[in-house]
């Protein structure tokens, strides 16, 4: 059965059943009306939400600074020397810019606030969460030292101890 025959059969069925033709017409009009309507979000007034712009990759400066600070504090723990620290971060920095929100009849507009030098006004920066930490140090093979280092890193970064791995250096 070809497409033309199927179409002709459908048309003949519609001619014999006027109710079906009416129902299909109403359904088609409803579908078209729904497609043409604006989203309900545009009609409801919402609280202003700051714009967030995500940097393409984690901030090397932030990561390096954390690693250096951890290295310094870990090297002060008794029985630890020659410390190396590696962090993995979840995502990247997010810069939140100030925005000005205005509401009219059924429309909410949000515009980024621009400072005098044509730059967006930075409201805050959200730094990425730490996913895991590797610490390689002399003395890291001893259970007591390993426990101190794991607990120190977990406490400082507010992460679980399962996300911290400590091993002995060569």
Q: What is the CATH homologous superfamily assignment of the largest domain?
A: ANL, C-terminal domain
CATH class of the largest domain: Alpha Beta
H and E string: HHHEHEEEEEEHE
Instruction: Compute the CA-based radius of gyration.
Output: 31 Å
Shape: elongated
- Kindly state the mean pLDDT as a whole number? 78
Helical/strand content category: alpha+beta
Tally of helical segments: 5
Strand line-up in the sheet with most strands: 1-3-6
Largest sheet: 3 strands, antiparallel
Task: Give the end-to-end Cα distance, rounded to a whole number of Å.
Answer: 77 Å
The domain count comes to 2
Going by CATH, the architecture of the largest domain would be 2-Layer Sandwich
> According to CATH, what is the topology of the largest domain?
GMP Synthetase, Chain A, domain 3
Number of strands: 8
- The residue fraction in helices comes out at 25-40%
How are the secondary structure elements laid out?
Elements: H1 3-16, H2 18-36, H3 40-43, E1 51-54, H4 60-74, E2 81-90, E3 94-97, E4 99-104, E5 107-112, E6 122-126, E7 129-138, H5 143-157, E8 164-168
Parallel strand pairs: 7-8
Antiparallel strand pairs: 1-3, 2-7, 3-6, 4-5
Describe this structure in words.
This protein is of the alpha+beta class and 170 residues long. The protein folds into 2 domains: 3-37; 51-168, ANL, C-terminal domain (GMP Synthetase, Chain A, domain 3). It is 39% helix and 29% strand. The longest helix has 19 residues, at 18-36. The termini are far apart. The model is unreliable at 53-58 (pLDDT under 50).
